[in-house]
Fold this protein.
Amino acid sequence: MDDLFKQWAGLWTLGMGEVWRHYASAQQTLHQQGRALVGQTPADVVHVDGPLRLLRYRPLVEQPLPIPLLCIPSMINQYYVMDLTQERSLVRYLLAQGIDVYMLDWGSATEADRHLSLDEHITGRLGRCAHYIQGETGQRAVSLLGYCMGGMMAAVYAVLFPGEVANLINLAGPINYHDDGIYSIWTRPEWLDADLMVNVLGNIPAGLLNTTFHTVRPTDQLLQAINYWERRHDEAYVRRFAAMQLWLNDPTPFPGEVFRKYITDLYQQNLLAQGLFQVHGQTIDLGTITAPTLTIGARKDHIAPWESVAVLHDLITSDDKELIVLESGHIGMVVGSDARTQLWPRLGVWLTQRSDSS
């Protein structure tokens, strides 16, 4: 039996080696193919602020709804996850529903951005985007859709500037950072010294972030290689695979001072959920949010466990609030095969019903 097992293990190793070599050799081609696929919904750059770009997507209906939507992605992942491919684009779907969609692209932080605080990113760069949209559209308030870290930023902005937020959507943005998620555990102060990292590295390099993401689920790349091998002749699958692999391996540097406060104040001290988080000296009380609010979590989310996302729903005092928990994961909820039937229509209906200025 031992000899049989050793023989089987040897054959499996040889076979897996061939699969991995084929997958590794295809990476450059997949990368190039992905670049040509992602973020292709027509848009115009209407505002620039350092590395940040504000995109306004061209409407797909003759008369878009009055209240515009500003999408706020995470600062460490590329914005185009919400516009991955033509077939898997949340942006394109919302445009088709008549929403006037803007996208905040944080860009790639440079050395000049390392000292810019999280406070300034929220009240300054995010704020200037909101003000540009208000001036361009003539609307006194805009809808905010924050994804992942962007959900936290959108909620904080709604506290600071309540008159400027028509509707608030938290899409998988953690609010309680002391949960059972892997990132909550990894960032504990006894294991991670944020001050030391920022003092030594400045901006946290994209390569270090990418390695961290892969370490969370070390077998994912092996499974991806097997899936690619098995379906490498399926052109539609390869298109989706190339786009998704590009995004998964395309993080941006994390601005140093943003990282410092994000880790120490939120992940390590959990100040936001306790009502003790401060921005420019003002305490952020989520209980003051009265704007219509949609909170969306996913049961299989290993990045932002749905319970930590749902805390926003519990804390706010809006008379118009809804909580949706999807049977999906952090990324799959937006671009997965069931996103078109699960997330998109529910989000679209909720938003269109609240995007008329009358």
Notes: Strands lie at 43-49, 52-57, 69-72, 101-105, 142-147, 165-171, 278-279, 282-283, 293-298, 321-326.
